[in-house]
Q: What sequence folds into this?
């Protein structure tokens, strides 16, 4: 199985603890990229990729900020090697963005009438019992 994409720079101490999980997520990413997309909309075929990208970034974020299980050197290494999305993690650190699924949901230019994505609307303002999917990343929002 191919390793997680890395530069020639040696990884810091603790890499061997998170490497198996990152390799598993990388394998899922390759499967999602090669999955046939006949019968799906263009955006729909990208949803599994966004989901796995979110999982990798959330895994690194949780290890560093919540559980404090990895060193700052290892965290910075993951950001430098683009294993985790630094911009997404920066948003998660801000109040109100803790559960943000992807950065595309923040861009108002990609929505009708230049409004928020449906997953950014407060759940209490949505219709009760109705399940909605974000057009950008496929996250499910239930009202």
A:
């Amino acid at each position: 199985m191919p390793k997680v994409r890395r530069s020639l720079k040696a990884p810091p101490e603790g890499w061997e603890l998170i490497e198996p999980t990152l390799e598993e997520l990388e394998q899922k990413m390759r499967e999602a990229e090669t999955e046939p997309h006949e019968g799906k909309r263009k955006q729909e075929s990208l949803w599994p990729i966004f989901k796995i990208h979110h999982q990798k970034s959330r895994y690194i974020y949780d290890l560093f900020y919540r559980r404090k299980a990895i060193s700052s050197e290892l965290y910075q290494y993951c950001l430098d090697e683009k294993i985790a999305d630094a911009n997404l993690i920066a948003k998660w650190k801000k109040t109100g963005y803790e559960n943000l699924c992807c950065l595309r949901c923040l861009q108002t230019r990609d929505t009708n009438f230049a409004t928020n994505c449906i997953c950014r609307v407060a759940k209490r303002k949505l219709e009760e019992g109705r399940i909605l999917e974000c057009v950008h990343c496929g996250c499910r929002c239930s009202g």
